[in-house]
Structure formats: structure tokens, C-alpha cells
Amino acid sequence: MFDFELHATDGAARAGTFSTPHGDVATPAFMPVGTAGTVKGLIMEEVHALQARVVLANTYHLYLRPGHELVHELGGLHDFMRWDGPTLTDSGGYQVFSLAEIRDVHDGGVDFRSHIDGSLHTFTPESVMEIQRTLGADVIMAFDECPPGGCDRATAEAANRRTLAWLERCRTRFERIAEERSVPDQALLPVLQGNVFDDLRREHARQFMDVADWPGYGIGGLSVGEAKEDMWRTLELLDDVLPPDRPRYLMGVGYPDDLLEAVARGCDLFDCVAPTRNARHGTAWTTAEGQVNLKAARFREDTRPIDPGCDCYTCSRYDRAYLRHLVVSSEWLPVRLLSIHNLRFLVRLGEEARARIVDGTFDGWRRDWLERYRDARSPR
């Protein structure tokens, strides 16, 4: 039920199709984040209209509220969130490390207190598999330890060892659950760690490939505070190590320039909360002007769409002057309208990157696009 077909390459950039039980995903592709079973502010018909093909949900949040068993009783993740396309759930590990007020990491798992009410919980590789199997997403992620950006080598090594041990336990429980009861077809993906240490990244990838023939690979532990050059170097070395016939999911990366740089280094799938988070702060992405803040007075009488080249609903119906009025008036509507634009901007960027890879013009197009975008973003 899960397959990845590679159609074209341009340097390390790849155009492919990731097949799942709920449909095919043309890559490169940006995947909107639906943390609690919803892409913030949008209904799923609007997400469909963006031409998004995959929606993410978060294990940590859905476990705490409303509970994975209730989601299952209500028809599983697809029915619960009214989305008939492919879905992915992350393991919740990043949220445990970043949101939980008190946590204790040990070889068995992680003990943590809920950020909602302070109640005590434990995530183990086995329980995380149980939660994600019960939620019913198409693609689920193994439980991993994500060390903080800028950590020392010893911390990164310890996280690698624990993540590898947890991966084997995840795989065992993942397969055992399928033997015990009827569950949807799901793909389990490991999450590569190693921080910015080249040898640790290579070693982790090879160790993972020795464990199993995975249907794809998650690349974690990047965009957590390291220098951009370190992230690009890490992706380049992984491109040489990971099997070319499997999709590569760069986790938590989704600013426009980062997305194109990662595509150029062999990554296929991306997610990030930035599109909707930026919308909540009144900011939007444009090709010619970089990121713009619609609170700025210069937009007061600007009757152009956010991005004249964008085909989203917002750009086809509303101008900057009206959107600025809504933003400075603290209305709710601009959050929705800017979310639609920002999400479509990234989805469309993936679509154009794919077309350029197929016709062999990706590298030159990428360089020109990034030069314009970064020049527009530079202080004047």
C-alpha cells in the first residue's frame, strides 16, 4: 500500500510520487500541520482547495485531549478531522521535550507533566505505537529523542543510542499490534538524529537501515537553532547515505527559502507551523517582496493582492489595504485569509519545484528565486 516512485532528478533534487492508502502525494510537497486535528482556522474543504495532499496531526496533543481512544471510537483520525486524504502523525516526542513543564528522560521512555493541567504521564516506544495505531494515520513516526540545538557531542551520542534502541522497540510493538487486532495499513518511519555531527548522522542512518527496510525516513533534529550552513551540510551528507527509492521527510522545516534549499539537497516532504503562526501575526510571504508585515502603514492604500502571482482565494478576492485594516483592527478574519495565502504559497512552491525538476531547470530557477526573495527581505 506504500510505495515511492522517483520520476526525475535535477542534481540532488527529486520529483516523485509517494503512494498511500488514502491517495498519492506528488513530491516535493509541503504538508499543512493540523496539530489538534485541525489546520488552525481552516475547514478541510479549504485545505483541499489549497491542493495540499497530506495533513499532519500531533500524537502528544491528541493523546492529552480528547484522547486517542475517543478519536478511534469516533471513526479514527480521518473521520474525526473530516479529511479523506493521507494523514501523518508525529510521535509527540518533540512536544514532550519542548512543551512539558517537567520531564524525566530515561531508557524506558519519558515521564512528563501535561502542559494543560500538570497531570503526570509516561511515553514509551510501545505506548507511542499504541496511540498512533489507535489514531489510525497513514504514516506514523517512531519515538525518538531530539537533543537541543547546540548540544555537545556526548549529548548527541546518547540521544542517538536511545533513539536506536527505542526504534527497535517501536518496530516490535508496531508489528505485534497488527498481529493482535485489525488495524489500518500504516507505514512506520524512523527519525534520524545526530545533531550537526557528520559521523553521527551517517552512523545513525546506516544503523537504521540495518534494522529494517523502512518505507521512508524522517530527518529530525534540524532547524532547532543550528546555523543554516550546518543544516545544509547535514542534508547533503544524508543524500549520499539514504536509499534513493524512499521518501525523505525533513521535519519542522517550512520557510520558503529553507524549503527550496532542502529540495535542492534531496528532501521530499516538509511540515512547519510557520504559515499559520505568521498569519496570526499579520505576516505573509511574497515572491517579489519576501515576507511582509501587513500592519505596516505603507499598505494603507495598497489595492494590490498580497502576491500578484498567487492563485489562492485570498489573493483573488482581497487587497492589501483591506487586509491591513483587518489586521490592525485585531479582527479574526485576516488570520484565516493570511493562513490560506501562506499555506498555498508553500504548496505552490513545492508544485513549481517539481515542475522545474521534471523539465531540468530547477537549479537555475531556484538560484534566481532565492536571490529575489532574499534581496527583498534584506534591510534597506
Please summarize what this structure is.
The protein has 380 residues and is an alpha/beta fold.
Strand content: 15-25%
Mean pLDDT: 96
User: How many helical elements?
Assistant: 15
The gross shape turns out to be: globular
> Any idea what the CATH architecture of the largest domain is?
Alpha-Beta Barrel
CATH class of the largest domain: Alpha Beta
Helix content: 40-55%
Distance between the termini: 52 Å
Q: What is the number of independent domains? A: 2
Q: Which structural class best describes the helix and strand composition?
A: alpha/beta
CATH homolog superfamily of the largest domain: Queuine tRNA-ribosyltransferase-like
The tally of strands reads 17
- Rg result: 21 Å
Question: What is the CATH topology descriptor of the largest domain?
Answer: TIM Barrel
What low-confidence regions span 5 or more consecutive residues with pLDDT below 50? none
The largest β sheet comes out as: 5 strands, parallel
